[in-house]
Write a structure and sequence with these properties.
The structure is a single chain. By secondary structure, the chain is an alpha/beta fold. The protein folds into 2 domains: 235 residues, TIM Barrel (Alpha-Beta Barrel); 66 residues, no CATH class. It is built from 16 helices and 8 strands. It has an 8-stranded mixed beta barrel with strand order 1-2-3-4-5-6-7-8, surrounded by 7 helices. It is globular and about 55 Å long. 46% of the residues are buried. The N terminus is likely disordered. The structure holds flavin mononucleotide. Flavin mononucleotide binds next to strand 2 and helix 11. This is tRNA-dihydrouridine synthase. GO terms for molecular function: flavin adenine dinucleotide binding; mRNA dihydrouridine synthase activity; tRNA dihydrouridine synthase activity. It catalyses: a 5,6-dihydrouridine in mRNA + NADP(+) = a uridine in mRNA + NADPH + H(+); a 5,6-dihydrouridine in mRNA + NAD(+) = a uridine in mRNA + NADH + H(+). One of its GO terms (biological process) is mRNA processing. Keywords: Flavoprotein, FMN, mRNA processing, Nucleotide-binding, Oxidoreductase, tRNA processing.
């Protein structure tokens, strides 16, 4: 299983996509809240946040899973819930439960992990365009909010063309494309030509994803591909102020995250991992090793007070 679930791991700077999501937004009531990351990221020019991938079959059948996998509140807007499913029925049932609380449903066709491929979800679906078409069609028939698909490219772009055409004919509102094939490692460069190809052939908006670690790189992707939005994962985890133009995580950003996360009672694992990402650039290997082994919120705060001059009392005041 995906054991790193970090809230707001996927983000875009596309205003048009955000408006699309916001346009058909309905909210009927609150779910338990624990989403400081997305709220905080929006203050750094992030237009749209996604949840981590959530298994539709588990989500639809377990209240416990729903409560632990997905939390939101009125300030968490716009937000897209991303599901992994291998059939339309599970997806629709999960989408119907989530729809009152989100601005869009996204179908994950990109997760390349072995367990996901075995479950016939994630990147496995890139070879199942008919299944994805049925999923999009069914979501659109049952749920009145946008439905998007996050894909990877195929080694043969003709297949990507066929895939995209089916998804949009079924009603997909936009497509996010990670410019690598299922088998490519993240150390290999993203294929911007392939993303541009998707943008050129698609009649719905396209969001580009992969290797954006600065605002300049995001602008470069816009220029080279003509896409409607840019999504970042690792870059924004390392530097939440990326889209605000900061080259490195500003200290005030770390303080604001701590204040918001502690205020919301964010779970220790998520709190720790976000801070591990934010400190990745600035801590030495030895420091990182020590920091990454801390196992409680007090230990994390003590460490930051001792070695990084964090003033918890001031931050929380
Ligand atoms: C910690 C982490 C968690 C991720 N979780 C998801 C996920 O739940 N769903 C998804 O579609 N992609 C997920 N991804 C993949 C990213 O969305 C993205 O496609 C990939 O990291 C390449 O973009 P980047 O270069 O901006 O990181 C995750 C990536 C990271 C680093």
């Amino acid at each position: 299983m995906c054991n790193i679930k970090i809230t707001g791991q996927i983000l875009t700077i596309s205003t048009s996509i955000a408006e699309l999501a916001r346009g058909t937004h309905h909210r009927n009531g609150p779910l338990p809240t624990s989403v400081p990351t997305c709220i905080f990221l929006r203050s750094y020019n992030v237009d749209l946040c996604y949840t981590p991938m959530i298994l539709a079959d588990v989500f639809k059948s377990s209240t416990y899973a729903r409560d632990s996998d997905f939390t939101t509140n009125e300030r968490d807007d716009p937000v897209i819930i991303q599901f992994a499913a291998n059939n339309a029925k599970d997806l629709v049932e999960a989408a119907e439960l989530a729809a009152p609380y989100v601005n869009g449903i996204d179908i994950n066709c990109g997760c390349p992990q072995k367990w996901a491929l075995q479950e016939h979800i994630g990147a496995f679906l890139m070879t199942e365009p008919e299944t994805v078409r049925d999923m999009v069609h069914s979501v659109k028939a049952h749920v009145d909010i946008p439905c998007s698909v996050k894909i990877r490219i195929h080694p043969d772009l003709k297949e990507t063309y066929e895939f995209v055409k089916r998804a949009e004919a079924a009603g997909a509102d936009f497509i996010t494309v990670h410019g690598r094939t299922r088998k490519q490692k993240s150390s290999e460069p993203v294929n911007l030509d392939a993303i541009r190809f998707v943008k050129e052939v698609a009649s719905v908006p396209v969001v580009a994803n992969g290797d954006v670690f600065s605002l300049t790189e995001a602008e470069d992707v816009f220029d080279k591909t003509g896409v409607n939005g840019v999504m970042a994962a690792r870059g924004i985890l390392q530097n939440p102020a990326l889209f605000a133009g900061d080259k490195h995580t500003p200290w005030e950003c770390i303080e604001r995250y701590i204040k918001l996360a502690l205020g919301y009672g964010t779970n220790t694992f998520i709190f720790h991992h976000h801070l591990m990402y934010m400190f990745e650039d600035v801590m030495s290997n030895a420091e990182r090793k020590t920091f990454n082994c801390l196992s409680s919120v007090p230990a994390i705060l003590d460490h930051l007070e001792k070695y990084w001059d964090l003033d918890v009392a001031r931050v929380m005041a």
